[in-house]
Amino acid sequence: MKDVKLTPEEQELLKPVKNDGWLSVPNREKEIKRYQSYAKAQLGELEEIKIEIPSQDLQFLQALAAQAQTSLQTMIANLLHQFVVHNLEGQIHNRP
Questions:
Q1: Position 3 in a domain
Q2: What is the pTM of this model?
Q3: Would 89 be classed as within a structural domain?
Q4: Handedness of CA 80, 82, 87, 91 (dihedral sign)
Q5: How wide is the angle at C-alpha 65 spanned by C-alphas 61 and 69, nearest 5°?
């Protein structure tokens, strides 16, 4: 296996693993299922949509996605989710 160069931050994160600082939980499978259920509840059902946006906006979003090392679809989904959570959530729940 090749030696991988780690950043100082990555080296710091790896210290507890090398020094037995992390212990396995006795009920590993149960814990995995529990956290999977949390993830499913958080994500919910995903729906696919089609949108048309100006090419300049698309180029900007593609650059953002490349900078974040993620896909364009993931970048757009994250931006929309942030918008909904931070700007619309209170309005929806506080309707008369």
A1: no
A2: 0.48
A3: yes
A4: positive
A5: 170
